[in-house]
């Protein structure tokens, strides 16, 4: 069991290194596993795709959902070479795998020049005090959107 | 100026409603604006694409980056119909727009059945106490990845 876990995490490492060597992106890799089988692999692809959301976990989650034909990763585990940033943690919560294993932590990443830790700190500040201000606007008009959704015959819980 | 802001937020609302009516996804819309011009529009597309990361803001950010040929949204503003979830906030920090305007807040969303607020709470808990456990594993081996990156001729700050 521990050997299997090591195998999957080292596969995440391998994918990360391959991504750096091929110029795909930063040194991060992730794999999605279900019942002892790898469903998808992802490496950081921000630089090569001009997509700031293309972190290893997001890439692996998108690919796994495509492969499984579902927006939910039931019974899956994710192995990622580094502690997920808030974006990736959010993606993980929406995909709902069973659990996540990570190797490097957010402070290791910060020491290597990847400041995910900073975003965690920002999210605790009031919107108007953040480096990227988050400002309320036209709230009163937005209730109509939830009403359209609740009245829609196409509404589906997700 | 205020009229222009209203125009952009209402465009985010329009995109959200269009998405619901067409069965694309939940009632959320976003637009990316630069110098008074709409660079991209996005609506929640989780249901139609089986992609749990396809929130309105992520869709709009990815599209804007594609249109601008950059992974950075310099000088851009984002108008979103609802306060971004942690995933979308993370995506926003990586894309680095100037500021974000939102209409409905996280509590309005929770009242309508979209529990982004729950994820914000989870991120404050130690990994092993979360609903989706986040567990450290093989940290000592992961330092090699950052070394590969730092030694790589393809290394690029992002």
Description:
The structure is a homodimer of 158-residue chains. Chain A is 46% helix and 18% strand. By secondary structure, chain A is an alpha+beta fold. Chain A contains seven helices and five strands, in the order αββααβαβααβα. The mean pLDDT of chain A is 96. Chains A and B meet through α1, α3, β3, α4 and β4 of A and α1, α3, β3, α4 and β4 of B. β5 of chain A pairs parallel with β4 (99-104) of chain B.
Our Rg estimate of chain A from Cα atoms comes to 18 Å
| Overall geometry of chain A | globular
Which strand order spans the largest sheet of chain A, edge to edge or round the barrel?
2-1-3-4
Total DSSP E strands of chain A: 5
Annotation field: number of helices of chain A: 7
Secondary-structure element series of chain A: HEEHHEHEHHEH
The proportion of residues forming helix of chain A, as a percent range, comes to 40-55%
The biggest beta sheet of chain A reads: 4 strands, mixed
Report the β-strand fraction of chain A as a percent range: 15-25%
Structural class of chain A: alpha+beta
Q: Kindly report the oligomeric state of this protein.
A: homodimer
Average pLDDT over all residues of chain A: 96
Which pair of chains has the greatest number of interface residues, and how are they split between the two chains? A-B, 87 and 88 residues
List low-pLDDT spans of chain A. Answer: none
- Report the span from N to C terminus of chain A: 33 Å
